[in-house]
Amino acid sequence: MVEEDRITLAPTEIYGRSDEEQNEPRIWRRKTEEPPGKCLIYTLTIIVIIFAVFLILSSIFLRISTPEIETTSVSTRDLRFGGNSTNPYFNATLVSDITIRNSNFGAFEFEDGSLRVVYADHGVVGVTTIEGRRVEAHKTVKITCVVVEIGSFRLLDTKGLDSDLRLGFLELRSVAEIRGRIKVLGRRRWKVSVMSCTMRLNLTGRFIQHLLCE
Fold this sequence. Notes:
By secondary structure, the chain is an alpha+beta fold. The chain has helices spanning about 20-25, 35-60, 160-165, and strands at about 70-80, 90-100, 110, 115-120, 125-130, 135, 140-150, 170-185, 185-200, 205-214. It is built from three helices and ten strands; from the N terminus they run H-H-E-E-E-E-E-E-E-H-E-E-E. The strands form two sheets. Strands 3, 4, 5, 6, 8, 9 and 10 form a seven-stranded antiparallel sheet that branches. Strands 1-2-7 form a three-stranded antiparallel sheet. Its main location: membrane.
């Protein structure tokens, strides 16, 4: 009897179990480089941030505002008034204290300015000069004893003055104007500061009341 040929079938490759595969050492591969598109986005983002910071700093440090001028007090001396209905008159000396506030990051240098005193709506009754000077950055300068002589002799029309003298009050308005330049980080800008103050001259008490500046 012829023996039968027996063929043993075996797999040509040996596959490990799934749990064996998990225990095998991992192979770390080098991370691929960022694509050029992402680098461009990062660069643009940084540029935008730098530009925004520059704008914020510019708005803070390069912004130039107009210095503020204000009359803090006014006193009177040598007050005289009288006359009749056809020839009323008044004369007085006003002594003012003025402050100039510079809120900029650069000094404010102004030329000689002017201070005018107006009686009601009749016209200017006195003029004087505010001497020019320098106000440092973020400083307030006080100018004392600004003297102006006022008098009705400057008026072309004294209509209504007699009735005001009898009432004992004169409505006055002082207008100051100074012009100067401010230098901030190499930039120079001319600014004009204007102040308008209303007040009432009490003839009986010989003092100023209701001083209000804008």
